[in-house]
Amino acid sequence: MHMAKAHQIVLSSTWGIRNTFQSLIAILTTILVVSTIYVAQEGGKWSQKRSISAESITSKCNLFNGKWVFDNKSYPLYKEQQCTYMSDQLACEKFGRKDLSYQNWKWKPHQCDLPRFNAMALLERLRNKRLVFVGDSLNRGQWVSMVCLVESSLPTTLKSMRTIANGSLNIFKAEEYNATIEFYWAPLLVESNSDDPINHKVPDRTVRINAIEKHARYWTDADILVFNTFLWWRRLSMNVLWGSFEDRDGIKKRIEMVRVYEMALKTWSDWVEIHVNRSKTKLFFVSMSPTHQRAHEWGGVRGNNCYKETDMITKEGYWGNGSVPKMMRVVENVIEDLKTRGLNVQLLNITQLSEYRKESHPSIYRKQWETLTEEEISNPRSYADCIHWCLPGVPDTWNELLYAYNFYG
């Protein structure tokens, strides 16, 4: 009895010591966690500057609200001349631009840092998948940027480019990953008389407002879809066609542009709702890309544009007349409506951050597809491209945002 009792006392004592030890460990762990949390706070707000966890950065930080920071150590993310598939429309250095500081700016959201773009991580995420950009030449520029961002990581024998669908679909393939990064030309998303990828400049633009399947069949099974449409709508009114372009009995009516834009995005959203595999496909819509055609809007000389501009606009919240808020609201409303139907489309709101970058357009530094007249040569402003963007440059940031949403969204 005494032995049993003694044994019980020893066990009880050991258990007590163990409990005390575990309590101390728990207290120390709590102190460490609290200390870590305290250190990670700045001014009472969570700091995400030190590292980005798997927890959604996009839920804690407005990635579209921030400022441009000069960084010539980390940027550009690639060299223009080293990108095998660079477009002559966007290769500003190749066509004579000497001031290259437009390549050295990093977008810095106010509450966090954008995750560093990692080409190999993205390719691994895209293994056996399709990333498809659908839209106009601004979206094509973003596609070229994305290809440039990843292709330098691949040996020549393990990458390829091909074009199908009468030139409308361009397919970059990373062979080892069986991954494609594609661009499909559909400047108004729905069918139009501007759908030819080469000959699309027509004086009287017409859209088949209810017709999208001719385009959509090429991107139905994509895993990531990135849409845009804005620039080609910039006119007061447009022809709307009910019927086919070949049908003489089709009904054609001229309608105010914003209303037509609304109708086209309704057709697009109905297609998305019906055809997209919700468990497989991620959807993005890129907001309007701003133009810099009127220098007086940012305090420059009236009659000038982005020609010879080398500095960005520093006034926070600057918004030029080239961007149309009521068109932006149409996109937001359509996306919100899709959400009520159980479909999530992430708006990549690139408009405000791109508004500041008046110095980052090709201006006169690109291939001229048509021979310039003597009058144009004497007045370079007249043929300066203040719509598209030099690469490396602003569209790389759009892709950094896309990357953040695919990994941390």
From TrEMBL:
Provide the alphabetized UniProt keywords: Membrane, Signal-anchor, Transmembrane, Transmembrane helix
The source's superkingdom equals Eukaryota
Does Transmembrane appear among the keywords? yes
Which PANTHER family did the record assign?
A: PMR5_CAS1P GDSL_SGNH-LIKE ACYL-ESTERASE FAMILY PROTEIN, PROTEIN TRICHOME BIREFRINGENCE-LIKE 9-RELATED
Which compartment or compartments is the protein found in?
Membrane
Please state what the protein is called. Putative PMR5 domain, PC-Esterase
A Pfam entry, by short name: PC-Esterase
Q: Which GO terms describe its cellular component?
A: Golgi apparatus; membrane
Domain Trichome birefringence-like C-terminal, by residue range, is 114-404
Residues covered by the Trichome birefringence-like N-terminal domain: 60-113
The protein's GO terms of the molecular function aspect are:
O-acetyltransferase activity
Membrane topology, record value? Single-pass membrane protein
Indicate the family of this protein.
Belongs to the PC-esterase family. TBL subfamily.
Checking InterPro entries in the record gives:
TBL, TBL_C, TBL_N
